[in-house]
Amino acid sequence: MLDSVMPLPVLNTFAGNPLDRAGDRRDDADWLAEQGASPDAMAMVLWEGRPLVEEAGEPRLAWLALSHARAVVPDRELFLGLWKGAPCFAVEVEGSADPAAGPLAGLGAFHEMREAAAILPGPDAAMAGTAKSLFDWRRRHGFCAACGVESENASGGWKRVCPACGVEHFPRVDPVTIMLAVFKGGAEPVCLLGRQAAWPEGRMSALAGFLEPGETIEAACAREIKEEAGLTVTAVRYHSSQPWPFPSQLMIGLICEVDSGEATPDQTELEAVAWLTRDEARACLEGTHPSIKAPPGIAIARTLLQAWVDGFDV
Prior knowledge:
By secondary structure, the chain is of the alpha+beta class. Helices cover 24% and strands 28% of the residues. The strands form three sheets. Strands 1, 2, 3, 4, 5, 6 and 7 form a seven-stranded mixed sheet that branches. A hairpin with a 6-residue loop joins strand 9 (159-161) and strand 10 (168-169). The protein is globular and about 65 Å long.
């Protein structure tokens, strides 16, 4: 069962972008030019995927007048949307030299996106994540997949068009199921966390995997649980979702019930698994568990774990 009824809002990190994306207007080149010429137009700045963050007072995105941003980064911008009628753009600086030590000195510091998301207000993290995903897509899709000719930017950065064959290319989002497996057949309910070898010592998280072509969310959840832990899924419930700009995924958060408490890590994706009672999971979240560290605060895996501890179930 996939229960789609979920009270709003469930705002995971990188969700809740407050901008009006103006998707019905950005194909109009004249309208976009007007937005870019507006004296109210402003821009955030990224350097190699890192947003510029103000450091005086509470951390927040540093916004520049678009004219200033264009002077620093010509021909490298995208249109993000409208904020109370004001046009909002993003520009990205490339190269090894830190712009905060050069043309943007005194305006803030560039932070790796995960680090920035942990300190920025939710709406700021969502806007920065959107910009990062779009710039990443632009870098990876510079040539037409149909004929190989270099494609051209269009729609303020939300589309690329092939000048040779006319094919239009749009940003892709890769769907990922991420699920907290729960077993209820023992003395008390337990949830399953897994560990990848590359993670920091003690870190464990919910299991996850990409959807494959022709696969439903429920089927992907069941397949990944079977492949990674050797368990059979008997029920699935949707919790919430999360944009994840590394580079551009949609994390589909689920709680699922499994038929056994005997999990076996596949030693390819997972090197270890652990079953936790609600009290043990709560200790992980509070940082008091003797050996297991919960997923980081920006991750939807932590949201799922907290939801289950608080009573959300299949």
